[in-house]
Each structure stands twice: as C-alpha cells, then as structure tokens.
Model the fold of this input.
Amino acid sequence: MHAARRLTYLLVALLVAVTAAAPSDAARERGAPTGACAHWRVRTLLHDQGWLENLGFDGRGGLTISALTQGRILRLSRSGRLKTLVASVHAPGAQARSGRWLYFNTGDTLPLMPNGTIDRFDLRTGKRRTWASGLTMPNGLALLPNGDAVVSRDLGTGTGLTRVRARDPRHPQFNWAKIDDTNGLAVDPSGRWLYVNRTFTTDGEVDRIRIAHPGVIQPVGRLGAGVAPDDLTVDRKGILYIAGFQSGSIYRLNPKTHRSCVIATGLSQPTSVRFGGPGWNRRALYATDAGGHLSVLLPPRR
Done:
C-alpha cells in the first residue's frame, strides 16, 4: 500500500510538472530580503529507515519519528539511541504534542477508507488510546489553541479539513474548512490563523484559514511548479518552512510579503520539517523524508 501511495504522489507530481508553465524552482529567490535565502547546511542523522512521514519532540529530550513503512513511532535520543516508542501503528502520519500527550494520525495510506484515527500516547505512563476515529487517510495534524485538532487529507475531493473537538472527539466535523488537496498544517503565532499547503496544485499553493471563521481562506504564497509541498512548520516570527516532496527542497515563505525561496536542496522526497525541541538545536530544522533519512538543517552562520 505504501508503494501505491508513492506511485500516486509521483504520477500526480509528473502531471503537475508537465502541465505547469513555470519551472520547478520558480519561487527561488523571488525578491526575498538579503540573507533570508542563504542556504542551510544539511547533515544526515539517520538513514535506511524506510518511508519516514513526520517528526516531533517529546519535551523530554527525545525526537519522535513516524516511521510509515515500519508501522512504528520511533524515539531518537540526543545521544543517538534509537528505539521504538509506540509499536504496531498502522501507517503513522503527522504528530502534535500537548504537554504529556503525543497525538498522532494512523491510517495515512491507500486505499481510501475511513479507518484512520488520531491516537493519544501518554509520554509519562506509556499508555495509548484512540482519541478520534472514522478518518480517511489523515495526513497533516495541528492542535488549535483551545485543544481541538485539525487533520488534512491530500487525496480525494469534497473532503475539506476535518476538525475534531476536544470536548467531543467521537464526532469529527468533516469539511470544517472547504479546501481540498491539503497536507501540512501549522497555527500561526497569533493563534488566529491556520496555515495549510496543497500538494497537487500546479503552483505549490499555500493558504491560511481564519480559525474563528473557516470560510475565510486566503492564499499567502505560491512555491512554483514541481514542488508538491508536504508538511510545514512556522517560527516565532510567523515565517513558514515547507518540505517540497517532489523538488527535494526546503522552502522559506514569508506569508506577509508572499515571497518565498529555497533554503536547502538535495533531500530525498522530504515529508516534514520541525524546529528543534527541548534538548535539541532550537535554531536548526529537522527533516524526515520518504527515502528513509532524518536530517538536520543548520542555519547559515551569522
């Protein structure tokens, strides 16, 4: 099934590349401020791990990884020790942590069936339970300021974004925001907007949704053709960093100016990027990819 999902990505990405008028890295530089587009150094921390879909930090010095083809959530310590944190996970997808709780999607794979869930893992006790169910191929995951969750889905039409309310997780609100072909999710520092990118658009579209009024959807940038944007993250200043699955690059996007550029290249189908958590380099970006690597991206020296 994982091979089928990869094939789907590649076939649609090929269609995007052929039909779009702009070159693959049309967004490179695009008027960004001096120094903002300097390239980050890439160093590999792990390899040969199969498709790695997402990552996070457990707040206890560990880096957590959604190992899609392994069917596990892994934990990498700062010293380099790799172990299984959660076993027997069906196609783990995006992660989000709130205090002691690690939330993660399951069923992020083909065929399209409503067998996906959001599971919740207690980082203190090691207990796991299903928090929400009935989801179809849940991909991205974000926790809103009030504790609700939003999940994306990049295949299928008429699905939109799904909101899961913390007070009633057994009844997901499907099509909460009417926008299809969605992948990465991140809440901006103000807590008012939810950023989302769209994998199979011909121009690498990135949008924002007003959380209080999800009918308000505004484009904030276009990365160009041949990018296939995957997961994304946002820094304290509101700058977005986006994994380009097809292009093998990491992008920086300023949603206020709509300007974007490439800051790292040569990755093997990157799927997710996150800034370092407790115990890790907070200025560095950490990235997973479908080629089985975990990489660290070191910012330019000041």
